[in-house]
Design a protein that fits this description.
Length: 316
């Protein structure tokens, strides 16, 4: 297990540096905005560019970039979006909004997904199962931004139950703020609920038809007792790593949903940095999203061995 984890971490670091290097090279091939166009901030931006080695060969620039960012934590300053402000400070200030929306979404979607999946498995091949399975395929097939537009039109515009946009400010635990993020939470939750329902239904249906379940029934257990004591425990082995991976990825947020509902999080910041050609923001957020994705994959794979002791990672 230790060798497997160590191998995965080494491969993760390698992939992370490959992606970071590719993005850095591609960014350097793009045209840079002349410092003189920034007016009173021109001298500051020019000084920071010289410190980052913008006038030196690209390999030297890459070495300076790695030394200042990964070793020193200095990702530079914003040149267009938040002119003159530290990129890292702006990023940290945007992270709580993304966390809030995604944590609410997970707390809403995980219990519903498990309940719908269990109910569909227990009602297999009946009309309840057919209805749930049809809705699951519908919600999985439709992109999340379509739900966002429907939620915004029906719940916000027609019924006027919620505001169209998330409230501004940093009072994240107030009731008005919670009400304002409900549309974004619902839009993010639909896909997760459908995905968990599908996985739970498939795994539990397979376990319910296993030989050991028949043995449990012959020993005198009722269908409900056999399901709760044996079937649910075994069917959750492949489902819990998926849930764990979802919780790890809540930091990444949703690029389109945050843009639609005006959530001032890292997802909206990423899109704005690409539009505004703010390369320092782009490099920081690219590194952030890449790392979150790689860590999520490792956590999911490793969690199998802890959830089910019968699974041994790296065994031949």
């Amino acid at each position: 297990m230790f060798k497997y984890v160590l191998k995965r971490i080494v491969l993760m670091i390698f992939v992370f540096f490959v992606i970071l290097t590719m993005c850095f090279v591609l960014v350097k091939l793009l045209p840079q905005t002349e410092a003189q166009q920034f007016g009173k901030d021109a001298n500051l931006i020019q000084q920071r560019r010289e410190a980052l080695g913008y006038n030196k060969p690209i390999l030297v620039q890459y070495g300076i970039f790695l030394r200042r960012t990964l070793a020193g934590g200095d990702w530079g300053i914003s040149e267009t979006l938040y002119r003159g402000q530290e990129v890292w400070d702006v990023f940290v200030s945007k992270l709580p909004a993304t966390l809030m929306v995604n944590v609410y979404s997970m707390l809403f979607s995980v219990p519903l997904g498990l309940l719908f999946g269990i109910y569909a498995a227990l009602k297999k091949n009946k009309w309840q199962d057919h209805v749930i399975s049809t809705l699951v395929m519908l919600f999985i097939s439709v992109p999340s931004y379509v739900y966002a537009l429907l939620v915004q039109y029906i719940l916000c515009f027609k019924l006027k139950l919620f505001p169209l946009q998330m409230n501004s400010g940093t009072d994240y635990f107030s009731w008005s703020m919670f009400v304002s993020v409900v549309p974004a939470v619902l839009s993010l939750a639909f896909g997760t609920v459908a995905s968990l329902t599908r996985y739970t239904r498939a795994e539990l249906s397979e376990v319910l038809t296993s030989d050991f379940m028949l043995l449990a029934r012959t020993k005198g257990l009722t269908r409900g007792q056999a399901t709760v004591r044996h079937a649910l425990r075994n069917s959750m082995v492949p489902v819990f790593p998926i849930i764990l991976g979802e919780f790890v990825s809540i930091l990444s947020g949703s690029l389109i949903i945050e843009q639609i509902f005006g959530v001032p999080g890292v997802g909206q910041l990423y899109l704005n940095s690409i539009t505004a050609l703010d390369y320092n923001f782009y490099m920081l957020l690219t590194a952030f999203y890449t790392l979150i994705g790689l860590v999520s994959g490792i956590v999911v794979d490793i969690s199998y061995g802890f959830i089910d002791p019968r699974i041994r990672m790296g065994e031949r």
